[in-house]
Design goal:
Largest sheet: 8 strands, mixed
Order of helices and strands: EHEHEHEHEHEHEEH
CATH superfamily: NAD(P)-binding Rossmann-like Domain
Distance between the termini: 70 Å
Number of helices: 7
Strand order of the largest sheet: 3-2-1-4-5-6-7-8
Number of domains: 1
Bound molecules: nicotinamide-adenine-dinucleotide
Structural class: alpha/beta
Radius of gyration: 21 Å
């Protein structure tokens, strides 16, 4: 008996790394799993693993960054398993380059997989969940990189967009019984092997089991998470955390509005010490001395 008995779930990029863990956990909890990956061998190996554990899985090799691929992902899930109750948008790629050097192709190839793929797969799945009248769950994937991360304009921007889409779809799809949440996972994977520090050197991080994120995903896809939507959770490495939504902080109201002169006279007193640290590592705010054109 699992919490997903009788459910059908699709996982994009399920052939390796974090997505493989999602597939294994979903299957262990009783879901029939459509394992998507553009890498046929990787998707096949995960399906085999699920089969050996007594679960039910099928391979889908859609390129989820295309409308045809997204449409086929959902159609195949329905054809094989009779319905789609859960979609996990996990597939991802990276093409890191500092902002001033990033090409249009590098930018768009990452936006296409993360942001456009999440948009198209979710839309196809939500239309089907609405039409089958069952409700359902969508779990998106963000990253702490969306706080800002050196060299990741394309990736950080896509992940920020996915966070905003998560909040928006939670509002729009509640009427159909569809819940939309996201995780910000952690794991040692092919992708994490590409991480570099600001000095351009490889970052050495201790091994983190990428499959651990799957338990949270299985919970979020289950009926036990019926009251949870529009939320983002940090998962992996033994941690489960609520990612707080952006919100207005320090605020000062003025009758008649702020004049430019007001800013000149009062900004420093009210706000300067409250400016937010930026970036994934939240280093001390670096610009208190002022951002000035380079000299010499
Ligand atoms: N590894 C981490 O610590 C970490 C941290 C934060 C967020 N994430 C996110 O978790 C997700 C999984 O990352 P991972 O580390 O397991 O990466 P990974 O590179 O190990 O696996 C990603 C999988 O997605 C597949 N894929 C890529 N493009 C695809 C497409 N167009 N259609 C279908 N499949 C496609 C790849 O073939 C690959 O198997 C990504 O969304 C990533 O941004 C990972």
């Amino acid at each position: 008996m699992g919490v997903l008995d009788g459910k059908a779930a699709a996982v994009t990029g399920g052939g390796r790394g974090i997505g493989r863990g999602h597939c294994l956990h979903l299957a262990q909890q009783g879901a029939a799993v459509l394992v998507n990956d553009i890498d046929l061998d990787a998707a096949g190996a995960v399906c085999e693993e699920i089969g050996e554990q007594g679960g039910r899985a099928t391979i889908n090799t859609s390129d989820i960054s295309t409308r045809d691929g997204a449409r086929y992902l959902v159609a195949q899930c329905v054809e094989e398993f009779g319905a789609i109750h859960a979609l996990v948008n996990n597939a991802g790629n990276v093409h890191d380059r500092s902002f001033l050097k990033m090409t249009d192709d590098e930018f768009m190839s990452v936006v296409r997989v993360h942001q456009c793929g999440t948009f198209m797969c979710s839309q196809e799945a939500a239309l089907r969940m609405r039409d089958q009248g069952s409700g359902g769950a969508i779990v998106n994937t963000v990253s702490a990189a969306h706080f800002g991360n050196f060299g990741q304009t394309n990736y950080a921007g896509s992940k920020g967009a996915i966070a905003s889409m998560t909040y928006t779809w939670a509002l729009e799809l509640a009427r159909y019984g569809i819940r939309v949440n996201a995780i910000s996972p952690a794991g040692t994977t092919r992708m994490s092997g590409t991480y570099k520090g600001p000095d351009g050197q490889d970052i050495k991080i201790p091994f983190i089991d990428p499959t651990q994120n799957g338990a949270a995903v299985a919970f979020l896809c289950s009926d036990h998470a019926m009251g949870i939507s529009g939320q983002i959770f940090g998962t992996g490495n033994g941690r489960f955390a609520i990612l707080e939504h952006p919100r207005y902080g320090t605020s000062v109201e003025k009758d008649g509005g702020w004049s430019t002169q007001d800013f000149l006279e009062e900004f420093e007193g009210h706000f300067k010490a409250k400016l937010e640290p930026i970036g994934i590592m939240k280093p001390p705010y670096p610009f208190h001395g002022g951002i000035k054109p380079p000299t010499g």
